[in-house]
């Protein structure tokens, strides 16, 4: 057991557990104090002097409470094989990091490679799904598996559309992740436990909540911002005029994510929300996977380019590192910057700068979601 790592993890969990703490405040504090542990080891007076203000966040009582909670959570995490993700970690989901209200801590259980998918689609909708909605989810996921087999399907494991999306992904071999509104010590609803277990091999379970937090209804709306923030695109499949799906669509729009909605018959209660999103230009109409793929500019499954098609890139005036990127893109057809950074063993900042340079040289084209394709 790595005692130092556990102690650092305890400080991180404790920081996230401080009442009133958010990401922007945490970034500012860490910039001032230099390290997470310093926030807990400095006196309130020392913290006030460093930050330039006094706050109840600095009280010994609040910080002590947070540390006690965190100690128990570290034990739970280690015993249950859970992966903790702090917002400064390199493997924290980069799409979510673009959102100002991203959680300081995430807790993940499952196959971590699923998080590196170049395309992420969140599918949400009513808990009272009709055969029309369920059939559409089934068809959409199957078509994505045929044309974009590296797409991650995200939802909330709830009744109706959510669980239909997860189960379709499992059937057709796509990775799928559920964002939970509670700690990883339980599964809600419990009838979806077997589905959640299946997902651990092909994806996993995400939450911002510790095992000690008591679930309340506000958590379900809060988790929807993560469902939106993790994705390149959000698809709403059946929704009434009120509900969590419309909230997710609104947040996704605020995050500058693409939003799509399945149209329904006029008068159908389960389609009123979707029709309203389309009518108000808050979502694009979707009828099949091609609508999504075309709008997002995603490449579909195709044969690898021939050596002849690479000759222009091979003879271009590129550095060895740039040629390495171009060969990667030529072989893959396209690349998503987070996955490329891992597979090319290159820091994201360095890779981003080289990709910009390749854009200027006319070698690559950038698409939404940090996707790049060779010209």
Give a brief outline of the structure.
The protein has 375 residues and is α/β, with parallel strands linked by helices. It has helices at residues 3-17, 23-33, 36-41, 44-51, 60-80, 94-97, 131-147, 161-172, 193-202, 218-229, 244-254, 272-279, 289-296, 311-315, 320-332, 337-343, 348-360, and strands at residues 83-86, 105-110, 119-125, 151-155, 176-179, 203-207, 233-237, 258-261, 284-285, 335-336, 364-367, 371-374.
CATH architecture term of the largest domain: 3-Layer(aba) Sandwich
Q: Numbering strands along the chain, what is their spatial order in the largest sheet? A: 1-2-6-5-4-3-7-8-9
Tally of separate domains: 3
The rounded distance between the terminal residues' Cα atoms is 49 Å
Q: What fraction of the residues are assigned to beta strands by DSSP?
A: 5-15%
Query: What name does CATH use for the topology of the largest domain?
Result: Rossmann fold
Averaging pLDDT over every residue, what do you get? 89
Explained architecture:
The protein has 375 residues and is of the alpha/beta class. The chain is 48% helix and 14% strand. The protein is built from 17 helices and 12 strands. The strands form 2 sheets. It has a 9-stranded mixed sheet, with helices on both faces. Strands 10-12-11 form a 3-stranded antiparallel sheet. The longest helix is centred in the N-terminal third of the chain and has 21 residues.
